Amino acid sequence: MLPFAYRVFQTIVQEQTFYRAAQTLNVTPSAISHSVNQLEKELGFPLFIRNRTGVELTPDGQTILPLIQAIINAEDRLQQAAANINGLNAGSVRMGAFSSVCINWLPPIIQQFKQDFPQIDINVEQADFSSIASAVKTGRLDLGLSALPVAEKLTVLPLVKDEIYCITPTDFIPANRTTVTAADLADQNFILQRGDYDKDTKAALDHYQIRPNALRFSIDDQSILAMVEAGMGMGILPELALERVSGNVNVYPFDTTFFRTICLVVNSEQAKAPSTAKMIAAITDYVTAKYPDKVLAHPHVG
Question: Which of 123, 122, 117 is closest to 83 using CA atoms?
Answer without folding.
Answer: 117
